[in-house]
Amino acid sequence: MVPRDQHLRVSLGEATVTLEDVMILGGFPVLGESVSAPLEDKEMLETEEKLIAERLQVTRTKAQKACQSGWMNRWMGTGNQIEHEAFLSMWVSRFVLPTKSNSTIEKHVFSIAIRLARGIPVALGPAVLVSIYRDLSLLKQTTVALTKMGNNEKKDNVFALSLLAPLRLSRFGYGRGFRL
């Protein structure tokens, strides 16, 4: 059962994003190893260590973070043995499991990228659905808080909300007729 704050009310009634939506509309697999499963194979662990070391090198730039552009520049066209894993790390960081620091490569994606590079199925769908539910909850909480503030606050206040999940997977028009 989907918690109430992950439902949206649209003109046709209530709607939510399901694992089937994530699988069919997003193309994310729902079968395979968990995204949080640790690596056990020695060769895969060595590859992860190499990626972590390279990430550390990228953080030693002026930006002091493993930004995606720096990551691309470090790997693109190098022919390095782990170039494919590096590319998949960026893809997962950017399109599958983005984080608050949307433009960085996070270490937790390395094990996923290593498995994908070797053709090992990884169940990305459930992790994507979790991120969608997280952002829908955040959207509802923020909307409720702003509604409660009403006219008590100045009209010139600026408010920013960062939603990172791929909400485009929702089949309903969440921008139209959105009511709480």
Query: How much of the residues is beta strand, in percent?
Result: under 5%
Shape: globular
Which parts are unreliable, with pLDDT below 50 for 5 consecutive residues or more?
A: 171-180
Structural class: mainly alpha
Based on CA atoms alone, the radius of gyration comes out at: 19 Å
What's the β-strand tally?
A: 2
Taking strands numbered 1, 2, ... along the chain, how are they ordered across the largest sheet? 1-2
Q: Helix coverage percent of residues?
A: 40-55%
Oligomeric form of this entry?
single chain
Largest sheet: 2 strands, antiparallel
Helix count? 6
Distance between the termini: 19 Å
User: What's the domain count?
Assistant: 2
Mean of residue pLDDT? Answer: 79
Domain Aminotransferase-like plant mobile: 11-147
Protein name: Aminotransferase-like plant mobile domain-containing protein
Pfam family, one: PMD
GO biological process, one term: meristem maintenance
Walk me through what this model shows.
The chain is built from six helices and two strands. It is mainly α and 180 residues long. It has two domains: 64 residues, no CATH class; 81 residues. Helix 3 packs antiparallel against helix 4. The C terminus is likely disordered. Pfam families: PMD. This is Aminotransferase-like plant mobile domain-containing protein. One of its GO terms (biological process) is meristem maintenance. InterPro entries: AminoTfrase-like_pln_mobile (IPR019557), MAIN-like (IPR044824).
List keywords for this structure.
180 residues, two-stranded antiparallel ribbon, globular, disordered C terminus, Aminotransferase-like plant mobile domain-containing protein, AminoTfrase-like_pln_mobile, MAIN-like
